[in-house]
Sequence to fold (308 residues):
Amino acid sequence: MMGTVIEITWISTKKHTPVIENAYHAIHFVDSCMNPDRQDSELARINAHAGMGFFNVSPPTCRVIEEGLRIGKETGGAFDISLFPLIHLWGFDTKTPHLPQESSIQATLKKTGYDKVVCDPYHHRVMLKKTGMGLDLGGIAKGYAVDRAVSLLRAGGLKSFIVNAGGDLYCAGRHLSRPWLIGIQDPDHPRAVIAILSLSNRAVATSGDYENYFVKGGVRYHHILDPATGYPARGLRSVTVLSKTTMDADALATALFVMGKQRAIHWLVAHPNYAGVFVDTGLNIFASLSLKNLTKWAKRIKSHVTYF
Fold:
């Protein structure tokens, strides 16, 4: 699924093979529709149709684009599904990312902007207004795929399970007699965690500057691009978001990372249905007060945590 390993873990005394298979099939269907690297995907065909009017799409693809535009508006453009040209310019969709020329970044920015994307949910069609535009749903499609799988697993009778798409995950029910325990990765140490979250019937997703990056001239350039500047967002190392749906958690982790610490804190305070954990460049940690009783911090971290 877009280069990510999908894992489904469940607890049950019964066999649920057909149900599990249906969940995996749903996830792979999302990938077949929304993976821009697949030339036969709907997303690749939408991008090829940029500047040529409306393009008919399947209801799932239309839904994800519609939700991506909604979250873009709600976050003041911090989340933007139209950044494919920039991602491609930086080479973050390849194995050899690189630092582009400033002039190229400025020229490419003119081909981006979620306000240049039109989604018609009633007729299941999408339009990219300008030639050279392109959508990238990597910041939301995995979350949607997890949510589709969750719906199918519940419909099939499963109550306690985790669906994990490379760290974008949903925890349903409980792990035997206790909540599921989910770690938040340390940005500097891939095999270590800064905290353990106790979760039940909740989604969680993390965006970090350690996932896809390169270093040039002593500067780390990562894949989470700021739609306003065309450059990697600065100020935070990682953002973890908890939500009722994995799609929202997925997209908001990216959006809040782009916002930076202060703006992101203000946004979360104004939207109490969500919760978050931020790690800044000084490895200081800021967390929603609602998580205080749900989080066990690593001993080396506890004194660096500020709640908001």
Observations:
- Helices lie at 17-34, 42-48, 59-74, 84-90, 102-109, 141-155, 246-259, 261-270.
- The mean pLDDT is 95.
- The domain at 175-307 is CATH 3.10.520.10 (T-fold).
